[in-house]
Amino acid sequence: MTLNPATRSKTVFLVDDHPLVREWLTNLINQQADLRVCGEAESGPQARERIQALKPDVAIVDIALKDSSGIELIKDLKECCPSVAVLVLSMHEETHYAERALRAGARGYLMKRETTKKVITAIRQVLEGKLCVSDAIAAAMATQFVEGKTLSTRSPVEQLSDRELEVFEWLGQGRTTRQVAETLHVSVKTVQAYCARIKEKLHLASATELLREAVRWHENKS
């Protein structure tokens, strides 16, 4: 790519809880003449603070962060740093999370199994103000526009709110309601209220059924 000497490199901030992924992305991005990594973080609160200070052009965000949610971070960034373009790069299947990420304010969703070339192309696309999603998600978005349908199939799990899905997944990972409450910085009673709504939406009769379904869903999507 030919770069005008007067054009500054676009800055990229990395948000991922795996050091190896951040190192790999840093090496990849810093090889580009028009891009450079300006900072990194492993959790949502840490990322928000640093992004507000550094004001990067784009933030690459994973869905699962250290004791926090990438979706919630994207919502926060939309409010506090609307000029920062957000690209999600995640192992989480796009059929479960792409629509949520886009609704939260992301400009693109990419799976970590994509090629390095695709990652760089995606960064440049969101920097240009374009939407970057897979062909499957793009086709679903077209269907949504033409027929008024949603991107997902609207399975019971897809009908959970972002926070309810976050609690559901943590339960599937083996966390107790108290551990979830500590992570979210809310009361146990609040988490129990989330669990009650999840049970209602998934038509589950007890906490045991909820836990069993959460574990099953987590294992099937992994």
Task: Describe this structure as you would to a colleague.
This protein is of the alpha/beta class and 222 residues long. 54% of the residues lie in helices and 14% in strands. The protein contains ten helices and seven strands. It has helices at residues 19-30, 44-54, 70-80, 94-104, 116-127, 135-147, 162-172, 177-184, 188-202, 207-221, and strands at 10-15, 35-41, 58-61, 64-65, 68-69, 85-90, 108-111. A five-stranded parallel β-sheet has the order 2-1-3-6-7, sandwiched between helices. Strands 4-5 form a two-stranded antiparallel sheet. Helix 7 (162-172) crosses helix 9 (188-202) and helix 7 (162-172) crosses helix 10. The mean pLDDT is 87.
Q: TL;DR of this structure?
A:
The protein has 222 residues and is of the alpha/beta class. It has helices at 19-30, 44-54, 70-80, 94-104, 116-127, 135-147, 162-172, 177-184, 188-202, 207-221, and strands at residues 10-15, 35-41, 58-61, 64-65, 68-69, 85-90, 108-111.
